[in-house]
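DEAD/DEAH box helicase
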Amino acid sequence: MANKKNADLKELKKLTKDDYFIRVFKKLCLNKELSFQEKEFILTCALFFFKYYNLDKRLKGYFKIGYYIILKYALNYNDYKPLYEISIQIGFYPIIDFITKVKKNLFSVDSKNLILDAVAFISYKKDFKSTEKYIESLEQNISRNDIIKSKSDEIAYIAPTSYGKSSLIKELIKSNNFSRIAVIVPSKSLLVQTYKDIKALNLDYKLVLHDEMYNNEKKFIGILTQERATRILNKNSKINYEILFIDEAHKLLNRDSRSYILTRLIQLNYKRNNSQKLVYLSPLIENAINLKVKDTNQGEIFTKKIQHDFKSFELYLYENQQSYFYDRFTDSYFELIKNISYFKYIRDNSSNKNFIFHSRPIKVEKLAENIANDITEDLSENIVIKNIIETLNKEVHKSFYLTNYIKKGVIYIHAKMPNIIKEYLEEKFKKVVEIKYIVANSVILEGINLPIETIFITTNGTGNKNQRLNVKDLINLVGRANRLNEVFANKKLKPDGLISKIHFLNHEDYQGKNSIKTALKSLREYSFSDIVKNPLIENYDINNLEFSGTKDQKEIRKKKQIIEDENLIEYSKFVLENHNNLNQEVKKYIIENSINVFFKDLNLAIENILKNISNFKFNKEIKIVDIVNDIFIINNEDNILDYELERLKNEKARNYYNNFLEITQKLHLNERINETLKYFIKKAKTESPELYIGSSYGNISKPSEKYHNGHYNGKVYIDLRKPEIFLVNIAIVKLKIEEDFISYKLNSLIVFLYTFKIIPEDYYFNYIYGTTDLNIIRLVRFGLSVNVITQLKNDNQIDNLELDKNGNLFVKDNKTFDLYLKNQPELFQFEVKKYLN
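Structure:
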């Protein structure tokens, strides 16, 4: 089978031996004029390619080159008859709709095809409107209807980005009578987008975004991360989900703590409800059987997979000041332009909306700076841009790098940026036509859908082999360009969006010494293999994994992983059991919440934690991070793997985080940045001016005896004796790092303290939410930040926000509240409207 999959690649490469084909195909690719005979020849070739594909559907390369030729021909020559006829046969009804409506003056229906055309017109106009009000393809329509009708307990919908996965979730909810529903999204960034989609349905359900929002409601829809969904089950032993939607289901295959939590969520829910319905959604799964979780025997996974994409793409390479068109079908390079600089190449090949990808945040910022410097047009006086700059100056900082770049229509986002800034900038890129460039890392794949037309890939990842972009990552990136709702929803949009332009740029400053061609060539593959790294997946086989190093090193790594696998499987069985003593309950909680990854020896850690609990006496005067130290750090100093957590043994570190929880997190963003800046300036004058910042920004090492063989001996520090503008932007980054540390690590330990009654409820609420007022706490659980809620309270607007009969948030007096919002800063308006619009 594997050989058959690659057979078409080898056969297509043989086309390079046909000089006439290559000459004509090259002219087509490069938009050169073809003679009548050449047009006839290349269209005939396309028909032969379709014929080969029809003889063996595994030979996807033949279909792709045939479709590319027809699509490219239509766009180059405004001759849509071949594309129309192929679309009729394949069932590409959105393209038929586009041709007959938008291109009706360029193409008229051939009378010989009236019967066939009539059937097609009736079908797509009557039956192929999805819930999103766009025309579906035949394949989409059949898949959607089959899934809606399916009685299977496990369903997988494998489809490219923008092929109706979110609309399928909504339709399945509407067409069934499930009472307890959970939509599991992989990141907090996707919570709001999914929440707004489901909220718009106006269904009679409580919408739950946080585990602490659930109050034994009989009917609810949880839009949750796997951590929050698991906590709901753990706190309510008699509860289960009737249906679980697993978005971005390919993440189940990964080997990391979040994948384990997701897998265990499925196992735990199955134990409580062995007729649970699972719906897996992903663009990146080769075989749905690889999604099967151990100990969940629910039969076969009913799978619908979209085989054919309306869109195609073209690949370009830039290196050594020269550009090339890369023919992915025959593995050939066609020379384009010589002697062109790196940033001029980006500018000359840009569309209205462009995404420049780099994996490292520090390089993302540098690329944005250089792209902005290369653009001569200044938008400073544009009223929309001016307003954004004023907002960022006032609400972030006047020295924020981005305020200069946006004057040139350039913004950047990355994972080391506070979420509210990132989401605000994404929204501006989406809505403001003057902003042409967004420079970002993979965080863009976890945010809102953006109107990207052209993509520039400037790196294939870091030097670490495990962190390089693989073919699945690249397919995901390519899929972000020209989403179908953007291509077909707006009649004014050029159909050129059906062929996305993807540029790979080789430059040592951004890519390093290894050529980016490896990544470029990987997109020749028309199928990809699932690599199951998660030992809790049924099809996991350690022998299918690759281990780097010499033969002996590979053997050592494999033996180590076998031990890890055994522990993981044992842990998963352990957490599914009922336990009735404190030792077991603590162990279960620690595993369920992935706290075990903080320690080398879990049993030793638990022994020390229990000893510390027995010796601890609560006093409300003791600060929370000191309690964390008393329970988790003391006696465990040499057993902690996590450097960030281990730092809490130091009093200065504990004081810093106590202050952050008590004061800093309640401040406005601009105030938080200024407070952090003051801290930097003060620390820069001490005998220890180095600041831990992590590998993303670190440029100096500060050897530690404890970690001399570990990651933290690398360049993870910076010297704070730098100009203020540098410190301001590092302060923005540091805030996000601290927010993530608190959200994903420190808070998990604080919740442990609350769960096991080591700290009382009012003390817990004060630190986590900054108040004991339950009305304010409800709003925080919806996602609003503490400082926004504080302002709403101070402005007497809290009473204007109420909960309906299902416990969902709504505005009591829209007119008054709208008037109030209009007079507030733009970033404040943006955050509030995320949840209330």
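The longest helix spans residues 724-755.
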